[in-house]
């Protein structure tokens, strides 16, 4: 609650909340958390929980996935996160995330949420022990579910961070591999509106280049991020609004602030200068989706 109050004072529009599978916290902890956050500001969009967390919460509540999602939605859940997809192939999942939910379970959680009218993102973790064929199969299954439900707002390819992980890799994801993965994703996922170049994993400069390789979103300023930092990424903890606007304009695109569902909040326009936007951003770090028009 304290973090939410601090972030709202900075002008954020979304809280993205994911975590581990806590062994003892009751289901009511999570519904109470959602309600309390919504009471702080009803406009705050709550994008919470990965598929494996939903399965865990269903087990805690002794309810079906649909019943669990219905209760979470009533408590204030606006959108599901796409994290935890990893690579769908069974053999790869067993090698990098033994015991995690299956590809079928991941997709079914999102399918259920979409059928309830909910929206979510989806991801793919690349650059570890998977093959290129595994990546294509992963994209194929995401595209098939999107054809079925049209519930995904966007796709976020995530580069594996080897620095603080125990999975041995021969070659970590290169900049070229990341750009190629984004480009192939944009071509293959023809039923997705948005492809994200996640600057936290790529670095802002490569994310900027990715705007010319099929990506139309470089994510938000991000006040506080833990997962990639724990994995060893050297990217900054956050970016100022001015830095993101500058990167987008330098790539020849027009910056647009968007909310969780990629609805336009503010069109910044290509003509404004980075200097003008930086002055306000030094005291106002926004958690926002800055997608390109």
What structural keywords apply?
13 helices; globular; 13% strand; 8 strands; five-stranded parallel sheet; 45% helix; three-stranded antiparallel sheet; 293 residues; alpha/beta
Textual characterization of the structure:
The protein is α/β, with parallel strands linked by helices and 293 residues long. It has 13 helices and eight strands. The protein has a five-stranded parallel β-sheet with strand order 1-2-3-4-5. The protein has a three-stranded antiparallel β-sheet with strand order 7-6-8. α2 (27-40) links the parallel β1 and β2 (45-48). α3 packs across α4. 40% of the residues are buried.
> Which structural class matches the secondary elements?
alpha/beta
How far from one another are the termini? 34 Å
Describe the strand arrangement of the main beta sheet, using strand numbers: 1-2-3-4-5
Which percent range describes the beta-strand content? Answer: 5-15%
Q: Main sheet, how many strands, which sense, barrel?
A: 5 strands, parallel
Count of beta strands: 8
Shape from CA axes? globular
Low-confidence stretches are: 228-232, 271-293
Estimated radius of gyration: 19 Å
Helix fraction?
A: 40-55%
Average pLDDT, all residues: 87
Order of helices and strands: HEHEHHEHHEHEHHHHHEEHE
Q: Please, how many helices? A: 13
């Amino acid at each position: 609650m304290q973090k939410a109050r601090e972030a709202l004072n900075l002008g954020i529009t979304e809280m993205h909340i994911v975590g581990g599978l806590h062994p003892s916290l009751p289901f009511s902890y999570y519904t109470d958390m959602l309600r309390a956050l919504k009471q702080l500001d009803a406009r705050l969009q709550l994008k919470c929980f990965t598929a494996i967390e939903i399965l865990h919460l269903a087990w805690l509540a002794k309810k079906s996935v649909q019943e669990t999602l219905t209760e979470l939605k009533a408590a204030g859940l606006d959108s599901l996160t796409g994290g935890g997809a990893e690579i769908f192939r069974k053999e790869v999942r067993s090698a990098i995330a033994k015991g995690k939910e299956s590809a079928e379970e991941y997709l079914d959680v999102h399918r259920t949420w979409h059928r309830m009218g909910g929206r979510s993102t989806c991801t793919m973790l690349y650059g570890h022990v998977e093959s290129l064929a595994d990546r294509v199969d992963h994209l194929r299954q995401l595209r098939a579910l999107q054809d079925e439900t049209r519930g995904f707002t966007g796709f976020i390819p995530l580069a594996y961070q080897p620095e603080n992980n125990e999975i041995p890799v021969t070659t970590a994801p290169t900049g070229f591999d990341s750009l190629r993965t984004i480009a192939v994703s944009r071509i293959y996922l023809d039923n997705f509106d948005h492809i994200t170049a996640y600057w936290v994993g790529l670095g802002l400069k490569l994310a900027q280049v990715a705007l010319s390789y099929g990506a139309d979103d470089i994510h938000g300023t991000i006040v506080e991020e833990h997962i990639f930092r724990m994995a060893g990424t050297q990217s900054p903890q956050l970016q100022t609004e001015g830095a993101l606007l500058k990167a987008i304009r330098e790539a020849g695109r027009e910056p647009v602030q968007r909310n969780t569902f990629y609805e336009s909040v503010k069109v910044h326009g290509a003509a404004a200068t980075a200097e003008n936007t930086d002055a306000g951003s030094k005291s106002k770090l926004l958690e926002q989706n800055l997608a390109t028009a």
